[in-house]
Amino acid sequence: MKNTIKIERAVKDITQQDLATAVGVSRQTINSIEAGRYVPSAVLAMKIARHFGKPTESIFELEEND
Amino acid sequence: MKPKNYLLPYSCKKVGMWMFLPFATICVCALLGVKLPEIEIPWIGIGDNFFYHGKADLVAEISMSGFLVSLSLIALSREKDEDEMTGHIRMQSFVWSLWFTSFVLAFGILFIMGLLFLDFALAAIYLFYIVYILKFNLTMRRVRRDLK
């Protein structure tokens, strides 16, 4: 699953740590999600989307092999 | 609704790590046949005829129990930054450790014979914990290193 968290962060000008604190996870989790190494749970994905004020599908997108 | 994860506080991990070294040393020494002081005390337990009433070696009982407690504290305590990804890594390490231990046990059952099997069975009790702790902590270390 690909995502646009890095872009959204750049738009909002916030760090990985800021986002991690806002959604209640560690910075390493945000880093792993951005790098595509970890697929977040539905709850976390929705929290991230809500933080950016966008629908979940606009930040997280399924890939061919998902 | 937050799911329960049944983990102990992070401080318990530190206690487990402090306990690990002395108890592990005594257990390894015992396994390697090093002569340890014997303190026999009256004991009640389960034996061949179900009910055992006899003597037990206090040093062996305490060191093996202490080793198990230390491993449990390390394995079952939260990380400082526990979150859902840590839980995911825990689950993966658990499955990996189960596979590894199963293969080692199968090997032992098939190819280790005689009295040596008793030592193997004794060591196998702790193997799952040790493999799980190693796998989990190595994975967490790699994840943290990727941040830098």
Structural class of chain A: mainly alpha
Largest sheet geometry of chain A: 2 strands, antiparallel
Total beta strands of chain A = 2
Major sheet attributes of chain B: 2 strands, antiparallel
Word description of this protein:
The complex is a heterodimer of chains A (66) and B (148). Chain A has 66 residues and is mainly alpha-helical. Chain A has helices spanning 5-12, 16-23, 27-34, 42-52, 56-59; strands spanning 2-3, 60-61. Chain A has a two-stranded antiparallel sheet. The model of chain A has no long low-confidence stretch (mean pLDDT 94). Chain B has 148 residues and is mainly alpha-helical. Chain B has helices at residues 10-31, 58-75, 84-111, 116-147, and strands spanning 40-47, 50-57. Chain B has a two-stranded antiparallel ribbon with strand order 1-2. In chain B, helix 2 (58-75) runs parallel beside helix 4 and helix 3 packs antiparallel against helix 4. The two termini of chain B are 33 Å apart. The model of chain B has no long low-confidence stretch (mean pLDDT 90). The interface between A and B is medium-sized, with 14 and 10 residues.
